[in-house]
């Protein structure tokens, strides 16, 4: 029960610790192992570039083949499904194989999956291969985030996790941009992705001696067990995942209903992703000063305000700063969840928590868009801000309720 109590009180305790003076011991703890941190962040960034490239690349290829939009969407859903299915196995695998070995193995297997996808360009064959791509990619994210939380000093955890989120978001954005250089036909774009996956393994191999072991203290816990320990934290992750996927997949439909052109909608999506990448360091720094839970509550309220303002400002210049901030605070909910995970949990519970994050992120990515699409069919295009607003409102209410319990 001690872990559950930590989930309720850790954020408030962290708020107090930020205002305490540094002792000599705390100054030593503030030292950052820069080589290990650079290796971890470089690994995940390169991996994000490869993944960011695959989503639009495979959609372009399927569209040229005349594949229906429904089948293209189903094919894309296979990757987050791989995230969901792989998550429960990651804690046990990392303990048995070791974090570095598992990360290197997953990098190689992901490269092999992408080679098979490039070799057999058939939507039905791609279904299981894209599932495997998600299955192999997920452990690398879980392991990397666990490493980063372990080595980040508590006093600097906010800005470090914010920097990590910003860099990974930038990696996802660079992936589609690389298609402008390599094109979308033939092997060149696949070679970029394959090389990026293999480079991940090489980076981990290079920094492996400096990386911490996977946490083994405490009692082993499953992903399902962690769900019972921290349901609010996981709902926050679900909200961040659903928010991002809903906006990226359905803003085009919303904009078209309001008579906006494709180029303007594409630019708005780019602005949303830019806010996602740029604002994470700032939010992490704010979390260090005001506490991660208070900052998450601010993000939830800002998301809700954006939902209310969207119909009013969509055709004015105010839509640009709104979408930029929206991108930052919506993904910031995930960044702040990572910070709270590090504040609240250690040992084997920590890696189970990271795996649970990946599990819930996959669910949010799969469930959010279809549910919102159905809402838009039932009540019209305003079903988009209504669905996003409901998620933001629920998170804000739950955060208030948890604070009162504490």
Helix-strand makeup class: mainly alpha
Low-confidence stretches: 1-9, 11-28
Q: Helix tally?
A: 17
Using the coordinates above, name the CATH class.
Mainly Alpha
Shape: globular
CATH architecture: Up-down Bundle
Transmembrane segments: 34-58, 70-90, 102-119, 131-149, 161-181, 187-208, 220-243, 263-283, 295-313, 319-339, 351-371, 383-401
Membrane topology: Multi-pass membrane protein
GO molecular function: transmembrane transporter activity
GO cellular component, one term: plasma membrane
If you had to describe this structure to a student in words, what would you say it looks like?
Helix content is 84%, strand content 0%. It is an all-alpha fold. It has one domain: Growth Hormone, Chain: A (Up-down Bundle), CATH 1.20.1250. The N terminus is likely disordered.
């Amino acid at each position: 029960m001690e872990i559950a109590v930590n989930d309720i009180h850790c954020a408030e305790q962290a708020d107090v610790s930020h205002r305490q003076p540094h002792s000599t011991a705390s100054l030593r703890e503030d030292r950052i192992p820069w080589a290990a941190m650079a290796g971890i962040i470089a690994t995940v960034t390169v991996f994000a570039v490869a993944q960011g490239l695959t989503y639009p690349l495979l959609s372009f290829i399927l569209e040229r083949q005349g594949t229906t939009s429904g089948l293209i969407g189903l094919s894309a859903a296979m990757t987050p499904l791989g995230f969901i299915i792989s998550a429960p196995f990651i804690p046990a695998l990392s303990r048995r194989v070791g974090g570095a070995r598992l990360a290197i193995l997953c990098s190689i297997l992901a490269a092999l999956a992408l080679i098979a996808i490039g070799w057999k360009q058939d939507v039905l064959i791609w279904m299981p291969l894209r599932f495997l791509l998600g299955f192999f990619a997920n452990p690398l994210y879980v392991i990397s985030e666990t490493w980063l939380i372990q080595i980040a000093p508590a006093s600097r955890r906010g800005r470090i996790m914010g920097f990590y989120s910003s860099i990974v978001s930038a990696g996802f954005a660079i992936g589609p941009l690389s298609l402008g250089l390599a094109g979308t036909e033939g092997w060149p774009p696949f070679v970029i992705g394959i090389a990026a996956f293999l480079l991940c393994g090489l980076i981990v191999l290079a920094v492996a001696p400096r990386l911490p072991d996977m946490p083994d203290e405490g009692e082993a816990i499953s992903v399902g067990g962690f769900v019972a320990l921290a349901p609010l934290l996981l709902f926050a992750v679900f909200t961040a995942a659903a928010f991002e996927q809903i906006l990226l997949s359905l803003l085009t439909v919303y904009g078209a209903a309001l008579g906006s052109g494709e180029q303007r909608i594409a630019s708005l999506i780019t602005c949303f992703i830019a806010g996602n990448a740029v604002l994470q360091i700032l939010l992490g720094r704010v979390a260090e000063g005001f506490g991660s839970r208070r900052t998450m509550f601010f993000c939830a309220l800002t998301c809700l305000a954006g939902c209310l303002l969207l119909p009013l400002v969509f055709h004015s210049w105010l839509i640009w700063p709104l979408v930029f901030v929206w991108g930052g605070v919506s993904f910031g909910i995930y960044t702040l969840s990572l910070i709270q995970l590090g504040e609240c949990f250690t040992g084997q519970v920590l890696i189970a928590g990271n795996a649970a994050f990946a599990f819930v992120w996959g669910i949010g990515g799969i469930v959010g868009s279809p549910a919102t699409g159905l809402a838009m069919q039932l009540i019209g295009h305003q079903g988009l801000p209504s669905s996003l607003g409901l998620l933001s409102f629920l998170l804000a209410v739950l955060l208030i309720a948890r604070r009162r319990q504490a």
